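Here is one chain, start to finish.
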Amino acid sequence: MAVNIDIGNASAVKGWLDAQIKAKQFRPCGHLLFKSLRYRMSGSTVSSTRVMFIPQCERRSFVWRRHPVPDLEMERELLAQFGQLDEISCPKDCKFFRHRWVSRVQGFLPASLRWLRWLPLVIQLVKAVSGSK
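Its structure:
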């Protein structure tokens, strides 16, 4: 049974994902991503691009209910083209689970530390502008 949501609507898929996290089918993990995929469809006279939104695990750890674990391309096809979002969940004892706040801190720190390399130049500039030696 496929989930009856419009995978072309980011808000609908995000709402479904949040509900699945509350239902403990997914965990609030830093590796759980919300991806958009673009499919270009072209016919003899018309071409269009369809955007679809799906959950994705950075560590490829989803548990599949009725399918063996597919390769990345087949996973995208099953989720995006056939809307089989109800087929996946996070493993209960996932070895790669990382709280989202930990991921945010780990992403923030390197960006913050990059500014430290400019600190000596900023100090020299302040000294030059203020006239102190």
